[in-house]
Amino acid sequence: MIINYLFKPLGQWRALLFILLISAPSCLNAQSQLSAYISQGLSTNQSIKEQDFLLKRNIYLLQEAKSMFLPTITFSTTYTRADGGRTIDFPTGDLFNAAYATLNQLTGSNSFPQLQNQSILLNPDNFYDAKFRTSLPILNAELVYNKRIKSQQVDLQKVEILLYKRELVKEIKTAYYNYLKATNAISIYESFLKLLEEGERVNLKLFENNKINRTAVIRSQNEVSKIKASLTGAQKTEESARFYFNFLLNRSLTEAILTDDVPTLPAQDNLSFGDVSGREELVKLQIAKGINQNLTGLAKSYLIPKIGTSLDLGSQAFDWKFNDKSRYYLLGISLEWNLFSSGRNSYKIKQAIASEQAVSAQNSHVTQQLLTELNVRRANLQSASARYQAAQSQLKTSQTYYNDMTKLYKEGMAIYIELLDAQNQWVDAQLQSNIALFDTWISFTAIERANASFNLQ
């Protein structure tokens, strides 16, 4: 009766329950909790927030580049006080005093005074000049290329954010599956520990009644100690997995993790194993190539003259006077053309062309790297799937072997060591099946990253 109580409830129904859990039908979109965690991680991750700030900065830089095509209005004023310096001597007295004296004699009056020679200061004294200047570029190739480059830098930063998000999704899913792997391992160890502790209790009773020798008791005690150590290791692994998962979601490390039902193997029919065109790394290279082309155009822009216009509306006078004579306007058109710079411009052009060629050469190399990575990930997925199928077969075989050995042991046709060996094989098969299942999902996640197939929305 004791042996029947020991093995029937703790053996058969726990094994069947584990097989049902490991084989429970599910599909990708059924993992609603994981999807919620991914959304949470994408919205709270600090690295992505940092990249968002950089995107805003690049957008502002683009807006600044666009504003350079619009007119600018500035106000400026100067006021000068002067004394000393260069002068102009004007002989006013020498020119007019003789004539004025003759006129005074003819008129019999002093209406015409005697004048002093003048020394006029060249530096303006007590003089102000205040004006509003409106400037507008008419032709400036540098501004055109600058705006194009800033626009491409915005696109580049958007792709950089997608790259961060895709890598974060991979890390979140991998950490999630590692956590599930650890929690399932804990469940397996806890179930087996209860089975072994009950066996230890039964063996101790049988030994006290002189039904068995001390070897079975010692062996059962050793097995209990071994499984307790394995359980402690699994618990620490689960704790580390929980810490890392919560770290990725930027929340308390000890916060509980809600999980979905254990899924079946991921579907591989719709996976693209030869297409990496969606990888953000290649998109970045294409944008970088365009930026280098515009940098080449910017370096050549010295060949095109710069034409601009300006309008000054102001007032200038002595002693802070403001009237019709002090007010003025000044309209001007400027042309600037770089005709000679000792070869500096040609060197800039050669540098830009070399950078453009380097990016073009890098594109082919990176494409081959990404294809190689995808093929390696595919091989890993196929290997993991094969291990899972083999583990499932081994699980069924070990379950049958354990059930048969249980019957033989209850009938006295097998010793405890043989039963213990069957138990260990059965538990090891459960653990291997659990590992293989989530290793397959981790490999599938790596392929999603390798071919950029996960929809980031």
UniProtKB/TrEMBL annotation:
Pfam family, one: OEP
UniProt keywords, alphabetically: Cell outer membrane, Membrane, Signal, Transmembrane, Transmembrane beta strand, Transport
Cell location: Cell outer membrane
Cellular component terms (Gene Ontology): cell outer membrane; efflux pump complex
Chief localization: membrane
Keyword Transmembrane: yes
Gene3D superfamilies with a match to the protein in the record: Outer membrane efflux proteins (OEP)
GO molecular function terms listed in the Swiss-Prot or TrEMBL record: efflux transmembrane transporter activity; porin activity
Signal peptide: 1-30
Organism domain of life: Bacteria
Stated family: Belongs to the outer membrane factor (OMF) (TC 1.B.17) family.
PANTHER family recorded: OUTER MEMBRANE PROTEIN TOLC
Protein name in UniProt: Outer membrane protein TolC
The organism of origin for this protein: Pedobacter rhizosphaerae
